[in-house]
What does this fold into?
Amino acid sequence: MLGTTVRRAARVASIAVGCALGAAPAAHAGLSTWSSLPGSEGRWVREYATGSPASTIYAALEGGAGVLRSTNSGISWSPFEAGLPGGDARNVRAVIASGSDVLIGTGVGVFRSQSGGAWQPLGQGEESDPKTLNRSVQALLNAGGTLLAGTFAGGVFRSTDGGATWIRPAAGNGMPAGETVWSLTSFGPLVLAATSSGVYRSSDSGASWSPASDGLPFSPILRVFGDDANPNIYYAGTAGSGMYRTINAGVTWQPVNEGLGPSTIRDFTTVFNPGKNETRFYAATPDGAWAGRTDSGPLPGKVRWRKVTQTGLGANTIFWGLSNFLSTPGTLLAGTQSNGAYSLTFQPPVNVTTPPAPTGTLQVGKTLTASPGAWSGTPTIDFTYRWKRCTAAGDTATCSFIAGAEEPTYVLVAGDQGRFLRVEVTATNDFPTFDLVRELSAATAVVAANPGTLPGANQQSAPTITGPQFPAPGDTLTATGAAFNPAASSGVSYRWERCPDTSGTGCVERTGVTGAAYVLTEDDVEQRLRVTAIGANSAGSAATQPSGFSNEIFPRQAQNLELPVVLGQPVTGETLVGAVGTWASPRTTYARSWQRCDADGGSCQTLGGVTGATYAVTAADLGSRLRLVVVADTNGPNKIPAAVAVASAPSAVVTAPAAAGTPGAGVPVGGTPGSGTPGGGTPADATAPVLGAIAAPRAAITPKRSAALVLRSSEAGTARLRVERVLAGRRAGARCVRATARNRRARRCDRFVLVGTLSRPVVAGTTTVRLTRRVGSRTLAPGRYRVRVTVRDAAGNVSAVRDVRVRVARR
It folds into this structure.
């Protein structure tokens, strides 16, 4: 089978090599640094696929360069182009492989190579033939024997005969006509598509679709990827908003961007270990590769990201493709934009020369500090600690872990008197070691009693927690009332714990929070907090009993950041898609209802029983407008806080379908020659959208304030916003150039420098687009900016350009 089945098998196979912890072969000897791979230099690598044997790898190339192949695990590359025509056929955006059978998606359709033979077109031909596929293909997937092709502005094509013939997207199949599909993935019968307007889900091998974008931002979704071990977990890479995850097969999504930020994710690969509670990620971004890790299982925790080294890459760090080497443990294969293929072999952490060691005074109340020892391996190496209490210095079998003692420092307590202490250090870096690399220190000498008097030895009082009656993220809880006799003359610190209930079991210490004030976060929702005071004096430190529990932490009320949007053409027989908009809390759940409004957008009435993400426009809607109402809640019905209701802008007035075209002479299937939609009788849309003047606020954009750009378009479609910095320049003929000492007397002019672009869906009518200081992965510096806006409709027609000026300020 082709596609996801192969890619999943490749990632599963990487478990074994990922745990080998061995050195790289000599061919990939650029350890801990990126190495350029011969034969790929200067190429724009979009995607990789591994064939059979695993040492055969294919690279899809943009920029008219076709395909590269390596038969030695990526060590060297050579063109693989026999039979591939010129022109847009050599812009290859997708590649999948099953053994020696390889498919590629190009600017003109799909090609196949069998057993290393020349490329052959699949299902291409006359456009009037409804069984052909002549579009630009962005994604390929084999879904249970059905071959799927995600196209540019054409939706998902299907083939049940290996690509010999194609089935075009049916009208009203749940995905808007003219959708661009960037990525496809599947797990069993479920297929997910990443598109310019969000994620869509299919349970019938791509024949019909339903929206699955609740919680995703209004930005193109460039990649969607499944967790190999958990069928309900998927990840979505966005254009400028980072990574999102669903744990319920696309019903709702939440951001997982801790350490990553609002980056553009073009590809990613995973390594997981079913024997350990960890999944590893590697993401391709415009700023190189990023490594992430999270828990395995159906309810994973946060994804924690950090940047992978860029040593060896040079100036071009824009990554598109990313894969694992199956034949080389811990090695990544990256495809750059116009800089070719690179490999990076991580070196796992290894303890060398100096083992971990605790240091400090061995008396009750004193603090021990763990040194991790000396380690080699790819930077950066992170360390975690677990302290052990032993009854015999030379026998590790007598040691047991101390509950909650997982910090680099440990305060000796009365239970340690007469015992010996050890510390176990676990080292991790970007090599997928799955917490298997550990080193245990030697035992300390015996712990003695403290000759002095510790704080609170005579009398102590536990702290109490004060704060709001219904605490929520952003509120502050405060520890008060802790008392020590003798006094804590050297100061008091605090240990905060997050607990699932009031039983006292399952509490987890909040690392790094040692003050009397604790600011609640989203992670505290549905939990309770308790706190312990730790007093210090010249004799050492001692802790009070824990406080009582705080009230349960409530979520914040749902906060809308971008209004809901109705996507699609308001024409009878067509299907509209209702996107819920963007909301602040990842906990937000949504309920939809649809309303029919007067032609002027007023007097809206709810349509009974219509609560889905899609709405099929009926004859009863003629002459009316339609809108979506979203009720957003963060804590379920009839609970604090209350739900929030927000409505989209009304659609354009609903009309009847355009009249059918006249059959053309010499065309056996309906349609006007050269102008009809293939296989149909409806004339092609050749009318560009009309974009009105754009309204923008006078107030500057700040870190706390966005600019609401009001766009008025005659058609629904996708708005492209080109954000340019406005700089002072000097006239040089017809051009405006940088101001220098030599041209300072020339006439002044405005010079425009591109910062980045954004894509946003627009409806027929009025759409509000919010512009913040973040454009893609860049932050706008204070100054003046020009935003150039165009709208592209489903048929590919583009409006005239409209300009608007905005300002950015520091505060």
User: Anything to note?
Assistant: Residues 1-29, 660-684 have pLDDT under 50 and may be disordered.
